[in-house]
Every structure is written in structure tokens, then in C-alpha cells.
Fold:
Amino acid sequence: MRGQLTVWFAAVRAIGNAGISAYLQTLLLTGARPGELLGLRWDDMNVQWHGLTIRDKVEGERVIPLTPYVHHLLAGLPGVAATCFRPPTSP
Structure:
């Protein structure tokens, strides 16, 4: 609900893990499914045209807008893995 967003964002931003915080915020802001976002690769981010390519099992892939705030969240992540969001079990 709209009235809960301020509290939700404050709690998510307070999470000690920047990757988890960015993942949860990006989920909410893009409407992507959890599995779609976990598979997001760095080359899926088109900074020039402000788009994110999301892959799913139904449509194949779709391009959604890359907003300045979501770009900010993704740019703050370490680019040490092929995917933007490493699974929690990764070192």
C-alpha cells in the first residue's frame, strides 16, 4: 500500500548487504519476477537508451525502462560476477 512505501524503503535501505537492498528495491520498482531479476546480466543494462532486458520463460525477453534510480542502484553493485545479483549462496 502507498502508505507503507516510506517505511518499506527505509527498512530495505537499512539492510547491511547492498546487493540484497538493491535487489529488493529493483524488484519493486521494475515489477520483474524474482527469477528474472536474479538472471539479470551486466550487458542487459543499456545505459545509452535507458533500458533493461529482462528474460522470462513465456515471452523470451522484453525491454523495460531503466530509470535513473534503478541505474544508480545497479551502478553501486560490484561487477565481480556475470550477473548483477549473485545468488545468496555465492561467495
User: Anything to note?
Assistant: The chain has four helices and three strands.
